[in-house]
Design a protein that fits this description.
Elements: H1 8-23, E1 28-33, E2 41-48, E3 55-58, E4 76-82, E5 88-89, E6 91-95, E7 98-101, E8 109-116, E9 126-128, E10 132-136, E11 152-157, E12 163-166, E13 178-180, H2 183-187, E14 190-194, E15 197-203, E16 206-212, H3 223-238, E17 245-252, E18 259-263, E19 266-271, H4 279-295, H5 321-339, H6 344-359, H7 369-374, H8 389-408, H9 415-426, H10 435-446, H11 450-458, H12 467-472, E20 475-479, E21 491-494, E22 502-506, H13 511-514, E23 522-526, E24 529-530, H14 536-541, E25 549-555, E26 558-564, E27 574-578, H15 584-594
Parallel strand pairs: 1-11, 16-17, 17-19
Antiparallel strand pairs: 1-2, 2-8, 3-7, 4-5, 4-8, 6-7, 9-10, 10-14, 11-13, 12-14, 15-16, 18-19, 20-27, 21-22, 23-24, 23-25, 25-26
Helix pairs in contact: 3-4, 3-5, 4-5, 5-6, 5-8, 6-8, 8-11, 9-10, 10-11
Length: 600
């Protein structure tokens, strides 16, 4: 039977399969080894087959999710190429991140190189040390520019008795391989290697793994209960769980700040070891988890045109990073508070912090949110231009649009309906949404005129007034009495203890700017009295708003004096809370806004 000739239909199918194979190059196979973790070098091998003619290999300039140039090539050593029999193939660099390799005689090119990986405190790149190995795979794996669409697979060779967890799905063919349909999907994967600990759960038809690089004391908090509830509320926003497996990696390091980077089916995060001992740190960590998780929908699948399909050399700017980051900064806390994992007080506290941060963001008066999105790639020396605007202002714009849509539709719809509608339209498409499609979505799933409202909020610089939004929900924002506000002068200073404060930067248009002060000035007296870093706020609090005062300072070696008129205090911390006299209608709106959305 086996030798029987295939019939005509089978022959036609065979021909079609052969044509498809000709169009798609054979799978690229990568191996990642780590024979000496303390050296911080991963050893990478990449094997390409059916190579006809000279071959080009490159390593990425940036990692999707980073939107900044972050060249892998600078960390690569010992690059070499060989054919299938191990015979060396001449390779020369044609630019700083690309190699031209001579044609192999047997159609096989195998490249080998070492990548230095010694990241600390952040999760954006790769690290290998005696305790742990971790990588966002775009930081290790290079590519053949004409084979980005080819299937790709990777095998890990963990050090010693180390375990391994990756978001790349296992290859059904086995052999210890993990496989993806193309290079994009492969390098969107993450891996952790070491003696990590792990918790897992099943929810919404998916299997969720939470891996911590060090043993953790989970006792004080019910992490799995909290994250499980969070996943339900995040999924409720978009109406679907778009994956079967999701991997949370948390790298525990003493120097860790609060950082994460999103991937299609997982996230890499960093946190300090006290994470579960301290309620504030724990709720902040949950906020990070919520943000990165919402990205699985907003940006990994629902993404702006331009940033996907990815290209790995050069910038890929978009005007819509405020949707990618800002709307995620809005939706993450919404899912979290609805899940009950954080209290409403904790939610309001983080909302208040965002409002203060936006109020103090002079960059928003200089550049629109769309311009700041586009220019995220640039490193700016302008001290008040911060990429953070995309997060903070973006999240508050989402909130304001939510109010406007709710008002226009008598509460029938909100900004989440727009995101859900756009997700349904775009997420399974290879290319992202255009500016026009974003605006159409605001009209179609929001309300008439919301395209123009979006333009007004993101298309030009200016302050954002949220008083009407607070009022609509029966909320108020009051100064935090625990952090009394000094008069506003608009300088940021550095220094410690009894030192004289040195001006770090001056807010444009502020009283200090009008007084002619500039960065590097060392303030020595206010109103003829000596000042010190540890009592500067007190000294300023003793001043009256609107009343001129003498400021003495050293500029280089010269003692100078200026007259400065402080303005009314701007509280550094605020409390957002429900108003005692809120109307029943406002109370209902607040409940509708914060109540759980996931079906039990
Ligand atoms: Zn983000």
């Amino acid at each position: 039977m086996r030798s029987r000739l295939p019939g005509f239909a089978a022959l036609a199918m065979l021909a079609a399969v052969t044509a498809a194979q000709a169009a798609t190059p054979p799978a690229t196979s990568y191996t990642i080894a780590m024979p000496d973790p303390s050296s911080h070098f991963f050893h990478v091998t990449a094997r390409f087959e059916k190579v006809r003619g000279p071959f080009t290999f490159a390593v990425p300039s940036w990692t999707p999710g980073g939107y900044v140039r972050d060249e892998v090539a600078g960390n690569v050593l010992d690059f070499a190429a060989a054919d299938g029999s191990g015979r060396a193939l001449p390779a020369r660099k044609t630019d700083t991140r690309t190699w031209a390799i001579d044609a192999p005689r047997d159609g096989i090119v195998e490249v080998r190189y070492r990548v230095y990986a010694n990241e600390r405190g952040t999760p954006y790149g790769a690290r290998l040390n005696a305790s742990v190995g971790h990588a966002n795979l775009a930081r290790l794996l290079g590519f053949a520019p004409d084979r980005l669409a080819a299937p790709a697979r990777v095998r890990f060779e963990p050090y010693g008795d180390w375990k391994m967890a990756t978001s790349v799905p296992p290859d059904p063919a086995g052999g210890g391989w993990y496989a993806a349909a193309d290079y994009d999907l492969l390098v969107d994967g993450i891996v952790i290697l070491g003696r990590f600990v792990e918790e897992s759960f099943d929810e919404g038809g998916a299997h969720w793994r939470m891996v911590f690089s060090q043993p953790m004391d989970f006792k004080k908090n019910d992490l799995i209960k909290d994250v499980r509830a969070l996943t339900r509320e995040a999924a409720a926003i978009f109406g679907v769980v778009p994956f079967k497996d999701y991997l949370f990696i948390t790298l525990i390091e003493p120097e860790a700040g609060r950082g994460g980077i999103e991937h299609r089916d997982g996230t890499s995060m960093c946190a300090a070891a006290e994470l579960f001992d301290d309620r504030e740190k724990y709720s902040s960590y949950l906020g990070l988890v919520a943000h990165e998780l919402v990205h699985a929908w907003n940006v990994k699948r629902l993404r702006p045109a331009g940033i996907g399909p990815y290209q790995y050399i050069g910038e890929t700017p978009t005007k819509n990073l405020y949707v990618a980051e800002g709307f995620t900064t809005y939706l993450g806390p919404m899912a979290l508070v609805r899940s009950g994992a954080v209290t409403r007080e904790e939610f309001f506290k983080s909302l208040g912090e965002r409002m203060v941060s936006d109020r103090d963001n002079a960059g928003m008066l200089a550049k629109s949110l769309e311009e700041q999105s586009w220019d995220w790639w640039l490193e700016s020396k302008v001290p008040f231009l911060t990429y953070r605007s995309n997060y903070t202002r973006g999240s508050l714009v989402a909130w304001k649009l939510d109010y406007e849509i709710r008002t226009a539709t008598q509460g029938a719809r909100g900004v989440e309906d727009v995101m859900k509608g756009l997700y349904g339209q775009i997420a399974t498409r290879a290319t992202g949404y255009t500016d026009a499609e974003l605006r159409q979505a605001f009209v179609r799933w929001g309300a008439p005129g919301m395209d123009a409202r979006l333009d007004a909020l993101v298309g030009r610089p200016g302050a954002l007034d949220l008083a009407v939004v607070l009022d609509d929900l029966g909320l108020e924002m009051v100064p935090d009495p625990a952090a009394p506000a000094a008069v506003y002068v608009g300088w940021r200073t550095t220094g410690t203890g009894k030192e004289f404060p040195t001006v770090d930067w001056i807010e444009p248009g502020s009283p200090a700017a009008k007084a002619g002060l500039q960065d590097r000035d060392m303030i020595v007296a206010i109103g003829g009295r000596r000042v010190a870093v540890d009592r500067l706020d007190k000294d300023l609090a003793a001043q009256a708003a609107g009343k001129e005062v003498a400021v003495s300072y050293f500029r280089d070696r010269m003692l100078m004096e200026s007259r400065m008129t402080p303005e009314a205090p701007r509280p550094a911390k605020v409390i957002v809370r429900p108003r005692g006299d809120a109307s029943p209608e406002a109370k209902n709106k607040l409940e509708a806004w914060l109540a759980p959305k996931a079906k039990p």
